[in-house]
Amino acid sequence: MKKLLLALLAASACVGAQSATYNLDPLHTHVIFEIDHIISTNRGRFDRKEGAVEFDPQAQKGRVDLTVDMLSINTGVAPFNKQLQGKDFFNVEQFPTAKFTADDFVFSGDKVVEVNGNLTLVGKTNPVKLKALRFTCFENKMLKREVCGGDFEATITRSQWGMVWGIDRGFPDNLRLLIQVEGIKQ
């Protein structure tokens, strides 16, 4: 009888568990891209981004809303930043933000292995699958709150968003996205 009571209490605790919201920490959230450049790799990042993640590990569900300020592109080379902000690439004058939204978290056991969503970039929206390289939650002793975070990656085809500059001259269509996120429970 005691075991049955404990099992019922444990089950009711799981049923009562609710999704928590984690605001993304801009100091520990990074959106980076890589693209081959003949004999090396061009890299860049976006310095301003904001968003939140709703996460319920018991129900194995989640939701992501991430907005990226495209004016904050930083390759370390000012003329290259300007070129990427122009109409041939991100066209930041007309489309100053990009947005990733997702509500499909894929689990293997109790681990997040993939987040499937939509990336809106240059006014076009296409599906993107982010592979979780790692993802975990823990009680941050310094903040005295739970934090969740991880590293994700995807390879996208830039021509799906209309960015075709240089493809006819041998520049690659594929680019790699690396996304590091850390969110603080609210």
Automatic annotation (TrEMBL):
Keywords: Signal. Residues 1-19 form the signal peptide. It comes from the Bacteria. Pfam families: YceI. Residues 21-184 form the Lipid/polyisoprenoid-binding YceI-like domain. InterPro entries: Lipid/polyisoprenoid-bd_YceI, TTHA0802/YceI-like_sf. This is YceI family protein. It comes from Variovorax terrae. The lineage of its organism: Bacteria, Pseudomonadati, Pseudomonadota, Betaproteobacteria, Burkholderiales.
